[in-house]
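Try it yourself: sequence plus protoporphyrin IX containing FE, in.
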Amino acid sequence: MSSPRPTDRYTSPAIFFHWAIFLLVALAYLAIEIRGPRGSDSRAFWTSVHFWAGTLVLVLAVPRLLWRLWAGAPPEITGNRLLTFVSRAAHLALYVFIFAQPLLGMLMVNAGGRPVNLAWVNLSFTLIGARAALAQGRP
Ligand code: HEM
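Structure, out:
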């Protein structure tokens, strides 16, 4: 069994995870921006797209992190300690983001007393029970 090793280039799965998650995050932002007025069909549709995109970000974040730990990444460009530190911190922050942001969205929905409903496949799930105090910013 081979141990994790740095490669010269990012591997194909790493490149796939990168672009898939980038596009899904962009779609989540787009959907929430263009969703339209409360009660409209447009809002229901784009909110569903938002939930789907965000949930898929979380679903892909798990294998992405595992793959990163397993396959490693190209070696850092050494020479400037400050840049190395900033790049490590930025990567770490992005990993935290792709887990925390979808989870916070799900918790917000649940705190408002509703399950997360993934439209078109009728899949619903609940992570926590209703919490009135947390749900002030609900839709
Ligand atoms: C990477 C994933 C996600 C990103 C980048 C994201 C981003 C955002 C943004 C920018 C807003 C608008 C906030 C505002 O202007 O007040 C928002 C609102 C919201 N998001 Fe997400 N979100 C993500 C995932 C999720 C997930 C997975 C869910 C639940 C399944 C979710 C549920 C919500 C809800 C309920 C709102 C409030 C909508 C409203 O105010 O009507 N989000 N999200």
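One thing you can check immediately is this: The mean pLDDT is 92.
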